[in-house]
Design a protein that fits this description.
The chain has helices spanning about 15-30, 60, 80-95; strands at about 1-10, 40-45, 50-55, 55, 65-75, 105-110. With about 120 residues, the protein is α/β, with parallel strands linked by helices. The chain has one domain: Macrophage Migration Inhibitory Factor, CATH 3.30.429.10. The protein is elongated.
Length: about 120
């Protein structure tokens, strides 16, 4: 199980959504023991003039920002989470560009009996 909810500054585009989702999927499979068929990715875009950090809109800071909430099973280790966060920031910064230092990735874990699918888990 892996659920990724992202908020990204900037204008929505198919190519950006595709690039971001490919990176997230790759990092999930590589570092979080994910399975593509049980991974959901949702990306929302917010204009840089409505995203404010430290009292100043990103448009005035000439920066972009990312907030990602991740839900995974409790089988993922601390070391796996650390490398996922580090490598994902590096890869997404190359695609999104100029990520603000106050961008976040938050990983929450659930017991295997605390979630369900609308289909059998094989």
């Amino acid at each position: 199980m892996a659920i990724f909810t992202l908020r990204v500054s900037g204008n929505k585009s198919y190519s950006m959504t595709k690039s971001i989702s490919q990176i997230v999927m790759e990092m999930n499979l590589k570092y979080l023991r994910g399975r593509a068929d049980f991974t959901a990715i949702l990306i929302d875009y917010l204009p840089v003039d409505v995203w404010v950090i430290g009292g100043t809109p990103l448009s005035e800071q000439e920066k972009n920002c990312l907030i990602m909430h991740v839900s995974v099973s409790n089988m993922v280790t601390s070391d796996e989470k650390k490398i996922f966060i580090s490598e994902t920031f590096k890869a997404l910064n190359q695609v999104i560009g100029d990520l603000h230092e106050d961008s976040y990735i938050n990983i929450q874990q659930s017991d295997l009996d605390s979630f369900s699918y609308n289909r059998p888990f094989n």
